Amino acid sequence: ELPPSEFMQVADSTWLVLSVVSNGRAPSGCQATGVTKIARSVIAPLAEHHVSVLMLSTYQTDFILVRERDLPVVIHTLAGEFDIYKEESGECVPVTCDDVSNGFLKPKPAASPTLHPVQSPQTRFCVLTVAPDTLPAIATMLIDVLFYSHSPPREAGAGSQDLDSITFFAFSLIEGYISIVMDAETQKRFPSDLLLTSSTGELWRMVRIGGQPLGFDECGIVAQIAEPLAAADISAYYISTFNFDHALV
Predict the structure, then answer these.
(1) In this predicted model, what pLDDT tens digit does every residue of 147-176 receive, in sequence order?
(2) How far is CA 145 from CA 112, 128, 242, in A?
(3) Alpha-carbon distance 15 to 182, whole Å?
(4) 7-27 average pLDDT score
(5) Which of 14, 22, 165, 245 is most deeply packed, by most CB within 10 A?
(6) Phi and psi dihedrals of 92, rounded to 5?
């Protein structure tokens, strides 16, 4: 419904959303959460089969976006370890490999992954949620932060390896659940009694991946970051964007 514009870039692929639901077993207290929770079981196998993914971690859960044309490979790759369902008219219907066998290609030998530059700014971030019925109370502030508060991005100097600070604000509204990532300074502008965070209220630091826009054809970027963190039991949120990837630890 958006009018065409020379200022709007649209990726040519159509993406499908995967969400991974546990089988009811409670995670142990020391288990890493976020993207590292599914690093070995989902992200690494998809990378090995040359499936490009976009990650969207939220306060509530993690979503993996895959291109529609890759769905047969995704299902063949994950069917051995997961029960896979598709949503039809609001109902979850089991999917079998036979349903998508047409178009499945055997994986090619993996190429060496590209090494992208990473930056770790000094900015500290909060991962928050808001009760939907309180959203109108902060709507004006949200609009101001989203559209009016940020200066245009500065081009990093040729010799700058680290950024002192980074402008990053992520807002998602998925099936009524709201998730927000904002820097600690921006959080102070909001009414503290309306923003809900974990009981520890811990702050997060960011690693930004990519020296220039990454595009959507490369595979394994998320796996490169998530697998070592999972091996060290480090929780991480991961947010892919049009231009860069961002890991919050």
Answers:
(1) 887 655 555 444 444 467 888 999 999 988
(2) 40, 15, 20
(3) 26
(4) 79
(5) 245
(6) -90, 120
